[in-house]
Design a protein that fits this description.
345 residues, alpha/beta, Quinone Oxidoreductase, Chain A, domain 1, Rossmann fold, 2 domains, 6-stranded parallel sheet, binds NADPH dihydro-nicotinamide-adenine-dinucleotide phosphate
């Protein structure tokens, strides 16, 4: 039997594909009625929306590992919300019964309310950390840090690690996991003194380079004079070039993101020192977190344990209101966040 939901939703549509930096006029906030609930579906009132750098790629009309956003259609992405209505009986992705009032993690973000099959959502444990942590430290960015460092770069105890965009959601966790896994030196780069101070004073990094004050190549050489064994790349461009120069023989790089290039309108030249990859026997390996879901239980147990024991610090930057979601996304691309960037509804 169909149940009629009580509400409409406000959702963000992409109305024009950005060229370069996304502009406000590339998006529209649209009010639409919600479909009636089928058996097994839930109506969720979203409380937090995730904005993430990979969404910039989805705004381009190109084939990639994740489908492009369609023009004049709602965008999607990670979200946390509260179940306000259940159609018939419903179970989540883990087989757990979903009831009104449950807090769920799901993929229909960029909107105030969502109707979706309950099996595409997951009831979250809000006792371990505030619910929105499932969009950050316990969610996709956290898993990305864990996968990149352990499976892709295969970090070993005693190694020296460098991570770029270190004050962000992924990077701040990379440095802390490296420390907890026995790295002998953890260096991060970030834009501005406030971020670098947070890294060394609170997040346990040994050294932090403000790449806006010192060219990253020089800064990295000063911070890690004996070189690095592992580089976790979130930035690409000058940061990747600096890391290739600083990597020691047999060093590894987990190529996670290249945010310095996401707004480029033309292909940019690569690092000028690629030939060093040969002589130093380096391994540079790209990865996509969604291919590594098998590590999620291990990640949740290990990182969840560290959270419980207070061994991990995490921050979030919260932008208020669905009207500000695009502003929050744009700010993320230019470094307006420390830790996870979130939109609170
Ligand atoms: P962040 O929280 O790190 O936010 C992005 C940060 O990038 C900004 O805060 C800004 O920090 C930095 N930045 C922006 N432009 C530049 C630039 N030109 N040079 C140097 N830094 C820049 O985002 P996430 O933690 O969510 O993502 C980090 C990276 O990981 C991204 O590249 C993303 O695409 C990638 N990623 C990849 C995944 C995968 O499966 N491969 C999954 C998830 C994320 P600052 O102020 O320091 O400049």
């Amino acid at each position: 039997m169909k149940e009629t939901p009580m509400t409409t939703t406000r959702e963000w549509h992409l109305v024009r594909r950005p060229r370069g930096e996304p502009l406000d006029k590339d998006f529209a906030l649209v009010e639409t009625p919600l479909a009636p609930l089928d058996d097994g579906e839930i109506l969720v009132r979203n409380t937090f929306l995730s904005v993430d750098p990979y969404m910039r790629g989805r705004m381009n009309d190109v084939k990639s590992y994740v489908p492009a956003f369609q023009l004049d259609q709602p965008m999607d992405g990670g979200a946390i919300g509260v179940v306000v209505q259940v159609g018939g009986s419903a179970t989540d992705a883990t087989g757990r019964e979903v009831v009104k009032g449950d807090t769920v993690l799901h993929g229909l973000g960029w909107r105030s309310h969502a109707v979706l099959p309950a099996r595409r959502a997951r009831v979250v444990d809000a006792a371990l950390a505030p619910a929105q942590a499932w969009l950050g430290v316990l969610g996709m960015p956290g898993l990305t840090a864990y996968v990149g460092l352990t499976r892709i770069a295969q970090l070993r105890e005693g190694e020296r690690v460098f991570v770029s965009a270190a004050a962000g959601a992924v990077g701040s966790l990379v440095g802390q996991i490296a420390r907890l896994k026995g790295a002998s030196l953890v260096v991060g780069s970030a834009g501005g003194p406030e971020k670098t101070r947070w890294l060394t004073d609170d997040a346990g990094f040994d050294r932090a380079v403000d790449y806006k004050a010192t060219p990253i190549g020089t800064g990295l050489k000063e911070a890690a004079p004996e070189g690095i064994d592992v580089y976790f790349d979130n930035v690409g461009a000058d940061h990747l070039e600096a890391a290739i120069s600083s990597l020691r023989p047999n060093g590894r790089a987990a190529i996670c993101g290249m945010i310095a290039r996401y707004n480029d309108t033309e292909a940019a030249p690569g690092p000028r020192n690629m030939a060093m990859i040969i002589g130093k026997r380096l391994t540079l390996r790209g990865f996509i977190v969604s291919d590594h879901d098998d590590l999620r239980p291990q990640f949740e147990e290990e990182v969840g344990g560290w959270l419980r024991e207070g061994k991990i610090v995490w921050r979030e930057t919260v932008v208020e209101g669905i009207d500000q979601a695009v502003a929050g996304f744009r700010s993320l691309l230019s470094g307006g966040n420390t830790g996870k960037m979130l939109i609170r509804l």
